[in-house]
Design goal:
This protein is α+β, with helices and mostly antiparallel strands. It is built from two helices and eight strands. Helix 1 packs antiparallel against helix 2. The radius of gyration is 28 Å and the shape is rod-shaped.
């Protein structure tokens, strides 16, 4: 089992979130550690070769700083968007340790990590399981057909069918 603790990041991942606010997407990054100061902030959302600028401002909430960014929802297509933060006067942009997941009318999701791991199917979808399933269904059908034969003859046919199935199904 993996850990449910968030990875280390330059923001508080647990308190950060994304939501819809009217026709906009609002992204709130809690306790941002800004390495280049906090003047002239801009956030850009990127996916493939598309980038969408978002207005960004630093606000004080309950004694803690939050970066609040807004972008038009209509400009964000379904998929995972990276977040890049730039400060005025800084030479380079910083990739935020989170991504935005957009899925149609579903709620927005702020994912942990600047990049994601590749997806894989659960083990229950493996070839071995499918093979066993085919063998079980075929064996059950064969048993129904062999009910009309004498038990010794049915056992011989069943053994031959099992040998053939092992060769075919691997």
């Amino acid at each position: 089992m993996g850990s449910s603790l968030p990875p280390t990041a330059a923001i508080d991942l647990v308190s950060s979130y994304a939501r819809r606010r009217g026709a906009d997407v609002e992204i709130v990054l809690a306790k941002p550690e800004l390495s280049h100061g906090n003047q002239g902030l801009s956030l850009t959302l990127g996916k493939a070769r598309v980038s969408v600028p978002a207005s960004a401002e630093l606000v004080e909430h309950d004694g803690e700083q939050r970066l609040v960014a807004r972008a038009p929802r209509s400009r964000l297509t379904d998929g995972t968007w990276s977040l890049v933060l730039k400060t005025a006067g800084a030479d380079r942009s910083e990739r935020v340790d989170a991504r935005l997941l957009v899925q149609g009318d579903r709620p927005l999701v702020l994912l942990w990590g600047a990049t994601g791991k590749s997806s894989r199917l659960p083990d229950r979808h493996s070839r071995l399981t499918r093979t066993r399933r085919v063998a079980a269904v075929g064996g059950a059908a064969l048993d129904r057909v062999l009910e009309v034969l004498p038990p010794e003859r049915a056992a011989t046919v069943r053994a031959g069918a099992r040998t053939f199935a092992r060769r075919v199904l691997g």
